[in-house]
Design goal:
By secondary structure, the chain is an all-alpha fold. It has a domain at 70-151. Helices cover 79% and strands 0% of the residues. The chain has helices spanning 9-14, 28-41, 43-111, 117-151. The radius of gyration is 41 Å and the shape is rod-shaped.
C-alpha cells in the first residue's frame, strides 16, 4: 500500500544521458514517478484486498471457534451420558439384588407350602429381566465410552 522506490539497471543506463531523464517511456524520473504513484492509484484495490484478507481471517477464526465449541460439547455430552448410564446401571444392579432376595424368599415360601410355583417363576423372571436390563445398560455405557474416545480424537479410523 505504500510507494516503493526501486533502483534498476535500466534506469541507470537510461539516465547516463541527461536528455533522457525526462522522456517518459524510458526515463529515470518516469520509473521513479511510476513506482511512487502506482500504489496511490491502486490504493482502493490494495485496500479491498487487505479488507478481504481480514474478513477471511475472521471467518477462519469463527470456524475454528465453532469447531472447538462443538468438540467441547461432544466431550461434555459423552461424559454426562456415561455418568447417567452408570447411575442407571447401579440402580438396576440394586434392583437385581433385591429381586434375587425376593426369589429366595419365594423359594422358601414354596418349600413351606405358603406359595405356589407360579410366584417362584415370576420372581425368577423378574430377576432375569433385571439382569438383562443391567447388561444393556453396561453395553450402552461402553458404547458411550467409545464415543467419548472418538470425540476427543481417538479411534481407529
Amino acid at each position: 500500500m505504500y510507494p516503493s522506490l526501486t533502483i534498476s539497471a535500466q534506469g541507470g543506463i537510461n539516465s547516463l544521458m541527461a536528455s533522457n531523464w525526462f522522456n517518459i517511456p524510458a526515463s529515470l524520473f518516469g520509473n521513479v514517478i511510476g513506482g511512487l504513484t502506482q500504489p496511490i492509484f491502486q490504493r482502493r484495490r490494495l485496500k479491498t484486498q487487505y479488507d478481504l484478507a481480514k474478513i477471511e481471517r475472521e471467518k477462519s477464526v469463527i470456524r475454528f471457534r465453532g469447531q472447538v465449541l462443538m468438540a467441547v460439547k461432544e466431550v461434555s455430552d459423552a461424559l454426562i451420558k456415561i455418568e447417567k448410564l452408570e447411575r442407571q446401571r447401579n440402580k438396576a444392579d440394586q434392583r437385581t439384588e433385591i429381586l434375587s432376595q425376593a426369589t429366595q424368599n419365594a423359594d422358601l415360601l414354596f418349600k413351606n407350602g405358603m406359595a405356589n410355583y407360579l410366584e417362584v417363576i415370576l420372581a425368577r423372571s423378574s430377576v432375569l429381566q433385571s439382569e438383562l436390563q443391567s447388561a444393556e445398560l453396561k453395553r450402552d455405557q461402553l458404547n458411550a465410552t467409545v464415543e467419548l474416545y472418538r470425540s476427543i480424537g481417538g479411534g481407529w479410523q
